Amino acid sequence: MSTMTATPFTEPEERVALREAVARLAGKYGHEYIARQAASGGKTTDLWMEMGRNGFLGVNIAEEYGGGGGGMADLAAVLEEAAAQGAPLLMMVVSPAICGSIISRCGTDEQKHRWLPSIADGSLLMAFGITEADAGSNSHQISTTATRDGDEWVLNGQKTFISGVDEAKAVLIVSRTEDARTGKLKPALFVVPTDATGFTRQVIPMAWQAPEKQFTLFLDDVRVPADALVGDPDSADGGLWQLFAGLNPERIMGGALTCGMARYALGRAVDYAKTRTVWKEPIGTHQAIAHPLAKVKIELEQARLLWQKAAALYDAGDDFAAGEYANMAKYAGGEVACNATDAAVQTHGGNGLTVEYGLANQLVAARLGRIAPVSREMILNFVAMHSLGLPKSY
Ligand SMILES: Cc1cc2nc3c(=O)[nH]c(=O)nc-3n(C[C@H](O)[C@H](O)[C@H](O)COP(=O)(O)OP(=O)(O)OC[C@H]3O[C@@H](n4cnc5c(N)ncnc54)[C@H](O)[C@@H]3O)c2cc1C
Fold first, then answer.
1. Using omega within 30 degrees of 0 as the cis cutoff, is the peptide bond preceding 211 cis?
2. Span from the CA of 234 to the centroid of ligand 1 (angstroms)
3. Does the keyword Oxidoreductase apply (predicted)?
4. Which residue CA neighbors atom 6 of ligand 1 most closely?
5. Mean pLDDT across the chain
6. What pLDDT score does 235 carry?
7. Among 117, 122, 71, residue whose Cα is nearest residue 94
8. pTM
9. Using CA positions, which residue lies closest to atom 14 of ligand 1?
10. To test the ligand 1 pocket, which listed residue (93, 99, 131) has its Cβ within 8 A of the most ligand atoms?
11. What is the 8-class DSSP label of residue 281?
């Protein structure tokens, strides 16, 4: 008999307690609150600030900078629980996960003291801008440039689909330095205040009704001080490490967010299937209704294991392996969110498409999980090439 101790497939007690506390808080607000805010053009500020006061938004940030001293697995658990209560806080992916991780890992001590405490308590929201209309999924093609001018940097370019800029005090902008205008991307990351001269935004009307809005950004000779630069674009790896310090958390959080959305949709569908009766028994008696929901439950547990593994690898400092699993987790989460929401709509029949039941808008929200922050096709490209060793296809 083996004497090896098996790793338990359970979470530590503290994280279970964290999940329960988040579920209680987010449950007070729930889907109705989010739907109401979205319909009236409101924001999630009340929920966001209460999450911040309770330490939930900064669980991954070091204690010396006002955080909880936990890891990405804790932050992702927080997001999954909020989303499972019908409150998918999109900006958690961006502010504490992407921006918080990049500044924690690559910022100077001064930058950490300046930004992390307010990111952790939720009083400052930082957006993240990498996507450009002409580059799309091919981030190597981004053309926003930063030019050094004495003690300052001057930024020029455009960004698109940037979430939450109207709520943010600053955007972490991914640019390239003027002398690296062509060739492989050497990212240079700058914290740009949203009230900087030359920084303008334009809202993009989206079909998804949500409190979080997307924006096109215009940077016209935006001047920022030298200490706005986070990390070193001239480092040995061409500055890619500082970008990936944020992209793995982004994908892990994307996986957790979509798992939470799938849990919410599945819960709604199961409740309805147990109570709606049109023949003699509740509709959940019919296998045509029950089996798709059972299938979603299995896909959901697979997807949750993937983001938990990705987060465990990231928190253990294995960035390389974390990258592979974070991509797969993001893919699996996007798929199950779509499948769960589709099954929930079908279970509800006509009610599934009413505004009152709120599930049709969730279909659009879940669809986002297949597109952003990295599309499922680009993940399949990555897995084909890096996990399977197939030739690069693009
Ligand atoms: C609601 C929302 C919020 C967002 N928030 C942010 C944000 O806060 N910050 C930010 O920087 N960005 C954000 N984005 C942008 C998002 O990351 C991009 O939409 C995403 O990376 C895809 O890029 P694209 O839209 O330009 O699609 P494209 O790159 O134009 O791709 C179009 C289609 O072609 C496929 N495709 C492209 N290349 C290949 C290939 N080589 N092989 C196979 N298929 C391929 C894609 O998978 C996709 O299906 C957001 C987007 C949305 C919709």
1. no
2. 27
3. yes
4. 162
5. 95
6. 81
7. 122
8. 0.96
9. 161
10. 131
11. S
